[in-house]
Design goal:
This protein is 44% helix and 23% strand. The protein is α/β, with parallel strands linked by helices. The chain has one domain: Spore Coat Polysaccharide Biosynthesis Protein SpsA, Chain A (Alpha-Beta Complex). Strand 6 and strand 7 form a beta hairpin.
């Protein structure tokens, strides 16, 4: 049972974080360390989180570390803070408003160990603010860089990666408000050539109004930055790939939503 570090950056919405934490503590796979990176200048929720964990005796039952950022860094940089401190074999990412199924870690780590895989992702369900499933995304068995550059088909909270893949290659999340995970996946795809996917829905991704990821203008701006600033493409090539990315996003959303409604 390889040791896993679970990284959760937190800024706001304690209600969703509690759902996320419960899904971690309910895992059938217990050999993990949970790292919560508190990324808010207001410390009210930090006190509440510590109180909840103490009251439920979770600090004694599980290996938990809370890192309090001195200043707001954003989700990507907060994950980097944790990545630099860990020495586990695997790293699992979970956003504070997402949820895992109870067999998530056990199923995915077994798959990676059996096939000697350094990076994997899975299918996932999309839920709303009330935990109702509204759609789904399916993981492809194989994704290459040429596929990923046109369509981001990897959900962050579904990813488990070997820590030495990140550290040996100096792979970290870039300083960008959204799509920071997309940049990292692209860099990894360049390195390992083939990214493996497990077509089992093991994660619930929460889609809410007002989140950064739901802001279309910010998404377009950062999508352009992915190609222009991080892939070093020219202006025309960056705009071309941004159009492909947007087209594939809407295509996936409409297809899966229509199939789900049926």
């Amino acid at each position: 049972m390889p040791f896993i570090s679970i990284i959760i950056p937190y800024k706001s919405n304690l209600k969703y974080l509690i759902f996320a934490l419960k899904s971690v503590f309910n895992q059938t796979y217990k050999n993990f360390k949970l790292i919560i990176i508190y990324d808010n200048a207001n410390k009210d929720d930090l006190k509440k989180i510590k109180t909840i964990l103490k009251k439920k005796n979770y600090f004694k039952k599980y290996n938990i570390k809370i890192i309090d950022n001195k200043k707001n860094l954003g989700a990507g940089e907060s994950r980097n803070v944790a990545i630099r401190k860990i020495n586990s074999k695997y790293i699992a990412f979970l956003d504070s408003d997402d949820i895992w199924s109870k067999n998530k870690l056990k199923t995915q780590v077994s798959y990676m160990e059996k096939n000697n895989i350094s990076f994997s992702h899975t299918s996932y369900r999309i839920i709303n603010a009330k935990n109702k499933t509204i759609s789904s995304r399916f993981a492809k068995k194989k994704i290459m860089f040429k596929d990923l550059i046109q369509s981001c088909d990897i959900g962050l909270s579904t990813v488990i990666v070997k820590s030495n893949l990140l550290k040996k290659n100096n792979f970290f999340f870039p300083r960008i408000k959204t799509k920071e995970d997309y940049v990292l996946w692209l860099n990894i795809a360049k390195k390992i050539k083939v990214i493996r996917g497990l077509d089992i829905k093991l994660t619930y991704y929460r889609k809410t109004k007002g989140s950064l990821s739901s802001n279309k203008i910010i998404s377009l701006i950062n999508g352009y930055k992915v190609y222009r600033d991080y892939m070093n493409y020219g202006i025309i090539k960056s705009l071309f790939h941004l159009c492909l990315l947007s087209l594939n996003y809407f295509k996936k959303s409409n297809i899966f939503y229509s199939n789900f409604k049926k």
